[in-house]
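Data availability (excerpt). The following record was deposited with the supplementary files.
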Amino acid sequence: MLVDAAPAGRASGPRLATVLLLPLLGLLAVAGLAAYLYAGPGGRMDDPRAGVATGVAADRAATELSNERLAALNLLLTGSEPARSAFTAQTQASDSVLSKLRPAGLAELRTRVAAAPQEVAAGDFLMQYTEMISEFVELRQDLPRRTGPGTVNAALRASGWLAVAREELAQIQLIDRRDADTPAWHENLAAHRAAHLDALRRFAEVAPTAWRDRLTQVPSGLGGDAQPALDALAALSAWAGADEGRIADAVRDEQNRTLLAGLAAVVVVVAASIALAVRAARAARRPRRRSSPPIDPEEFQVVRQEAARAVAEQAALRAGTSAAVIGLARRSQRLADELVHHLDAAERDEADPDRLAQLFALDHLATRIRHDNQSLLVLAGADTVLGRRDPVTLLDLLRAAQSRIQDYPRIEYSMIAPDVHVAPDAVDDVVHLLAELFDNATRSGPSDRPVLVEGRREGAGAVVEVADRGPGLDPQRLAELNARLADPPPLDAAEAHRTGLAVAARLAARHGLTVTLRPPPSGRGLRAVVQLPPELILDPISFPPDSPVARRLPPPRPFERGQVLPGNEPVDVPHPRSTLVPVVPGPVRTPDTPTVDLEPEAARDLLTEGRSSA
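Predicted structure:
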């Protein structure tokens, strides 16, 4: 029987308010946790100032250890008391900046240098110093790889190249000091000079304008005494570090404003929800007829605790998983870079065609491993774009994507527009996207049938079509995949084995590309159509012939139907390397079969640009 439940209604008011406030408690818990991790005493998780401070400390340590290495060489060569006093003074200067970054084995090395007899062979001592300095330079170059604001990462990347240039010039100073006048001595000197100039060029490409202006005031250091140039580069590095701090402070202020705005939004939502809960509780106190039993208060307590715990665990799990994936991918990427570095050195000195073909196969495998690492970074939301400066022709871009897949000989080009140039900021991601489409097409189609690729202009933009002869897709599955390409959802367990589609969708969204899967006009197969917007296409006609952009546009490549990679060697898109003190190359011998040295200039530029960048 229905009865008047006024007393029960008054008791259910607080219960109803509790139910409505449960999501707010979880929201407040997450907001409080985020604020504590961001601004708490042990937080500063994404503070760009921490990376800048680490880089500045590494620069100072590398500079002082470089000075100590030169003082040690003077002591080992002369054994004089002035040289010993200078070495002792420099060790004290080094200790003043190595309080938290002291390399292992430094004290033992200093003792050995001080006790060494006059005119002892200094190579072993210098090598140990060089390894310690290289760790600081590698740390400097590794900082931009971490997730962070783009403006801070650009400044860190420029400072990393400045550290490499300074170390290469210091190596030249050591070589000049140990004048040997042998073929190996001259080769070593030439290699370090080339690396020094390359590092300065890369610094100028990514550094802010004020930094480049200060670089013009630094003397060369290659035609005589290198010490004035080293002192000037050290001063420039210190000034750049201070400017990095200013950039990081500005970024941090913006982060603070964003955090405050988010917390304000949380407060507004909480206030509005409390008001609604109060109104609902008042309405529940009014006399009403009910037939449902009262709700147990202990159940609300359990639900509230479980909801708050689930919200906190989910946020922590997502953040930890993303950070772990990025860290592992970065580490594997560095290992692949080191492998390719050694393979490059082996290819330069190899004249036997069969061994060279084996080295090319290993190089191709390392390239595919590196491509998979970049896919992990894309899925984890990390930035994988390199700091390019020059545009790339569509043909070279397609050939670079072709070199990243396993079955690259099956890619055939039906027609490629020779005058299409892709903007430098989008080159790496577009190559990665096309490589995913190429790989999917070669896996889907019969192994004895080619995959046809066409690139053409379409209005102010460009279109690339990739067509295979596979079984195709039913209309429902085709519509589902196109929806995922247009609006990439979070990667779930059901689609974990189709990471190529997820990577392509995220790269397309990053640059405003449109990727659509379509059935062929007739017969079996599938076409992947990539539309490049006008913003990514540089038209040579729109730039004066003497403008900087026009001078950097590569010349149109002659296209031949059925063109393949020369000598079956993959042409890899450049990837950053952490090359500190480069291996001295031996004499370059041209093998019997075509190699990358015989590539046209545009393909060689695309291959070698950034080959040793960080």
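Summary of structural features: The chain is about 60% helix and 5% strand.
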